Amino acid sequence: MIGPDGEMLGIMETRDAQRFARERELDLVEVNPKAHPPVCKVMDYGKYKYEEKKQQNEARKRQTTVELKEIKLRPKTDDHDVDFKIKHVRRFLEEGDKVKLTCRFRGREITHPETAQRQLELIAEAVTDIGMVETAGRMEGRTMTMIIGPRISKAILKQRRKEAEQKAEQEAAAPEKSESVQSGAVEVSSAPVASPAAAEGDG
Predict the structure, then answer these.
(1) For 11-39, what is each residue's pLDDT tens digit?
(2) For the domain 14-62, what is the CATH superfamily, name and number?
(3) Helix (H, G, I), strand (E, B) or coil at 11
(4) What average pLDDT score do residues 153-175 get?
(5) I want to staple 110 with a disulfide (CB 3.0 to 4.6 A). Which of 18, 87, 105, 201 is the partner?
(6) DSSP 8-state code for residue 187
(7) Alpha helix (H) ranges present in the chain?
(8) pLDDT per residue as tens digits for the range 43-52
(9) Residue 177 CB partners (closer than 8 Å, separation 6+)
(10) What pTM did the predictor assign?
(11) Alpha helix stretches (DSSP H) within 11-100
(12) Helix (H/G/I), strand (E/B), else coil: 29
């Protein structure tokens, strides 16, 4: 059995271990049931679960999830719509997510896959400054797909965004500090001071 401070208390009968925990207003928790004999620890179980949940929440906050966004096209999508979809692709990449371009063929359109290939390549070229092709255009049934990933990972983008926010907060606080210093300035009297020559004349 393990004590509340992590000390090894040796092997105990179950009833003795329960009494030991009860006398200290703590709980007897089985931490390794597969051991022979099973290993138990005396602890505040409520506090233990609270700390465990707190650690899980902190880990979840630090975790960065990359999503796969899908942009759908047709081989006959006009230039204006393609430009509009490029803007969406750029936004997703700037947020650190991957983009799956899907071009679906209908009827006899499938006899000209090169049209869709040119479209996908055009989009990939338009975002080459922030994205790179991870999976080149390929046929999947009656669709052609391409996957573009961001050049900078989402974790780094998140860190840069956080640093930019902190910098903005510091810059916003700077003028307030300057105004505070000015308001504390000492007022200087504007009364005229007699010159030495005038003082001698009076004498």
Answers:
(1) 888 898 899 999 989 999 988 888 888 89
(2) Translation initiation factor 3 (IF-3), N-terminal domain (3.10.20.80)
(3) coil
(4) 79
(5) 105
(6) P
(7) 14-23, 45-62, 79-94, 113-126, 154-183, 196-202
(8) 998 998 998 8
(9) none
(10) 0.51
(11) 14-23, 45-62, 79-94
(12) strand
